[in-house]
Amino acid sequence: MALTPEDVVTKQFQHVRFKEGFDPDEVDDFLDEIVVEWRKTIEENEQLKARISELEAGGASAAPAAAAASTPVVEEASAPQVKAEAPAAAPDTEAGVSSTASNAAGIIARAERLHDEHVSEGKATASKLVSEAETKAAGIVSAAEAKQREISQKLDTERKSLEGRITELRQFERDYRQQLRGYFEQKLADLDAPESGKSPASTVGL
Questions:
Q1: CA-CA to 150 of 20 to 30 Å: which in 10, 26, 125, 136?
Q2: Residue 172 confidence (pLDDT)
Q3: How much is the average pLDDT of 138-155?
Q4: Which has more pLDDT, 105 or 54?
Q5: Residue 199 within any structural domain of the chain
Q6: Number of other CB atoms surrounding residue 111 within 10 Å
Q7: d(CA 162, CA 63)
Q8: Contact between 106 and 100 (Cβ < 8 Å)
């Protein structure tokens, strides 16, 4: 599909944030200049084509007119004149068409190069942003994992300390119960034992 000035005018580029690049206003102004020159080139090309058609039509009609002339002198004079004009105009026309086509090709090449630069710059910037985001995300994940390991180790240390304290308290409870049981058993044994040096109550005063 051929590229037209309207394609350049209506072309929309995606805006990429947080990047270094060309000034969008300068790019738009340059593209406007390209469109203006391009349209001028197309108009000149159309005029040159019309001129070539006129010259070709004039050369074709000049031959019958020369043949219908009344005298050989007029025929000889008119025929060379037509032949002289056509070759003289043809090189200028061909040169103009070639120059116009060359200018148009140069403008198109500049527009395509500018477009390619924008696309390449956009891709490079996007790749850079993605790489930075991935690096930042990896750093955040690594920091979170390190923090999680630190908290887990701290909780595990506290858990072991609490388990050791519970074991000590249980052992203390067992020892205390055993000592308390022994104490009461000793007291009960002392109560059950007869008092030494005392007579039974039934024999006192007899």
A1: 136
A2: 92
A3: 91
A4: 54
A5: no
A6: 20
A7: 120
A8: no
Distance, CA of 177 to CA of 170 (rounded, Å): 11
Amino acid, single-letter form, for residue 145: E
- Per the confidence metrics, is the pTM higher than 0.90? no
Q: Range of 101's domain? A: 5-9+20-144
Element spanning 78, H or E: helix 72-192
Mean pLDDT, range 127-141, rounded to an integer = 88
Q: Is residue 102 part of a domain?
A: yes
pLDDT digits (tens, 9 = 90+) for 68-113: 554 444 444 444 444 444 444 445 555 665 677 677 777 888 888 8
Residue for token pair 């090189």: 91
The residues, ordered by sequence, that sit 6+ positions from 15 with a Cβ below 8 Å of its Cβ are: 24
Instruction: Tell me if 27 sits within 8 A of 114, measured CB to CB.
Output: yes
Q: Is residue 167 part of a domain?
A: no
Q: Is residue 116 part of a domain?
A: yes
